[in-house]
Amino acid sequence: MAEAFIELDRVEKVFEVRRRAGFLRRERRQVRAVDSLSFTVARGEMVGYIGPNGAGKSTTVKMLTGILTPSAGRLRVAGIDPSRERTRLAHRMGVVFGQRTTLWWDLPLIDSYRLMHRMYRIPDARYRENLDRLVELLGLGELLDVPVRQLSLGQRMRGDIAAALLHDPEVLYLDEPTIGLDVISRTRVRDFLRQVNAERATTVLLTTHDLQDIEQLCSRVMVIDHGRLVYDGALAGLHEVGESERTLVVDLERELPPIEAPAPARVVRVVGPRQWLAFPASESAAGLVARIAARYPLVDLSVREPDIEAVIAKMLHGTEGTPEPPPDRDASPVPESS
């Protein structure tokens, strides 16, 4: 078996919350954010860690980094108890939070990197080598002298990813690492993370709402809900359990009756010359696209991925998981076949 780098054994985290219960009176109640959570992640593995808002993802990451102490259970990262040896573990991990930055707000980007050079005591030669490589791969050359507060969200995200990897961490926690990035930058970041994982066997735990991040980077996905692990396996298996669907958006040259699609694909909406077809997310779109292109006058088409929230909701509660196109006043329902 591969070496277990991250280990959680029946980990719990309970918060005590006070709330007003009347005039001059407050009551205490306990909120269980993580409930008997157990899993392992092997060294060098890239794992997607997903779930609805409030499921316990951030609480888990904060315990893994030593920011929070578990209420019960056993947790180890590289054999270290994060809450007891947080400083020691800090030299072996990198963290990127999509909505927060580890960079110094009023300083040029390069000054943040220089400060981290000293904080982590990175050898000079290694620092220069890592910095040059990160700057090139993440396209940061023109941004080094720009104050962090003047960077766009996408530029800052790339800057944060570089900062998290300057000291060669063994494990990287990523929270929405592609948020705010354009298509080219998003592809560059994904390629870079894949390369870092392959070359340096960096263990990666990725939380995201973008299914394409998971599909392109992770061979394994874990789903957490109400603090409990409800799925652990391949993404294809998650699609099958959740019966999720992708949507093929087809623009025709003119308005036509609903496209005759091979089962299980089906037309779910028609608006003028535009039609939406739903098909299982576990299946390739290639055959469906080829069939439509051969029989209908195409102008354009695109594939929309299922929303992670919808996939999980369908898996947990049996609610409809088919992605809905945006409302349109001119939309007409698909006519029933006679």
Structural class: alpha/beta
Shape: globular
Distance between the termini: 58 Å
CATH top level class name of the largest domain: Alpha Beta
CATH topology of the largest domain: Rossmann fold
* Biggest beta sheet attributes: 6 strands, mixed
Would you list the SSEs in sequence order as H and E? EEEHEHEHHHEHEHEEHEEEHEH
> Taking Cα atoms only, what radius of gyration do you get, to the nearest Å?
23 Å
Average residue-wise pLDDT: 87
Number of separate domains: 2
Assigned CATH architecture of the largest domain: 3-Layer(aba) Sandwich
The amount of helix comes to 25-40%
Major β-sheet strand ordering: 5-6-7-3-8-9
- Low-pLDDT segments, ≥5 res: 319-338
Number of helical regions: 10
What is the strand content?
Answer: 25-35%
Q: CATH homologous superfamily of the largest domain, by name?
A: P-loop containing nucleotide triphosphate hydrolases
Number of strands: 13
